[in-house]
Amino acid sequence: MINRTGFFLLLAFGLLLPVRGEAAGDWMEISETETFICRSEVRIGQNELPQLLKTLNDEINQTLELGKNEGLLELYLFKNRRNFVEYVSLRIPEGANRQALYVKGEDRSRVYIYNHSEVRDDIRHECTHAILHQALPYLPLWMDEGLAEYFEVEHRVRSTGNPHLRDIRFAMFFRHKPSLAELEQLNSLGEMDKNDYRDSWAWIHFLMHESQESRQLLLQYLKTIREGEPPGPFSQYLYRAMPNADARLQQHIKTWK
Ligand SMILES: [Zn+2]
Q: Which of 12-16, 66-70, 191-195 has the lowest mean pLDDT?
């Protein structure tokens, strides 16, 4: 549904009045999917935004066996960084310096993003957080970010085209070993650097693609969380079932096509 009122008023009076001030929050498009209400300051057209979000939601729910979610999430897409900062700083001042933002609200969770050349990756990343937290009462930080990094790449090249694959291979060439125990020590986004994002992604990629066994470990852990049981650290659970997981991760990353 398009916010026609604002659009036509602008057309009718645009020639007579000075250019209208463009305050953040002048939505050009408002659309809704089963899961998201989207408000956008830019015209995405052809229902691209609802379609992207529906595809992402279906993929995440099917891949991770999360089941059906209740409730709606909100996505706010701004036409530029200035409008993003203006809108967000009034509501979540601590989030205004971020590139994009997911906020878990009391009533509803919201994603704030501004338009740029790779905005679709940002949308998939932040909305992955929103979808995961809609379904799960808790998620370890490294797993939350690893999954968001994984799903942010479009489906067609998701398992092969993520820049993290090249970067982790490069790091491993210089004997870097992604440490799950170290990732589990991270408690806030402020503690995470780009290498932590890369390593979190590598563990998620390993769990998703190495074998049925590795994928089942991830799914079983998420199921435990979903059922409301305190799951304990994933590493305990992983190494109990797969004592040589570190060596298998290395092998998986080196040989993945
Ligand atoms: Zn994130």
A: 12-16
pLDDT for the residue numbered 3: 35
Based on the fold, state whether residues 45 and 112 are members of the same structural domain. yes
pTM: 0.88
Same domain (yes/no): 159, 101 = no
C-alpha 198 to ligand 1 mean position (Å): 12
94: which DSSP letter?
Answer: G
Measure 191 CA to ligand 1 centroid, in angstroms: 13
**Do 107 and 159 share a domain, yes or no?**
no
Locate tokens 């370890």: which residue? 140
Domain that holds residue 48: 4-135
175 in the same domain as 125: no
Whether the pLDDT of residue 205 is over 50: the answer is yes
Q: What residues have a C-beta under 5 A from ligand 1, the ion?
A: 145, 148
Amino acid at 206: F
CB 121 within 8 A of CB 197: no
Q: How far is the CA of 127 from the centre of ligand 1 (A)?
A: 9
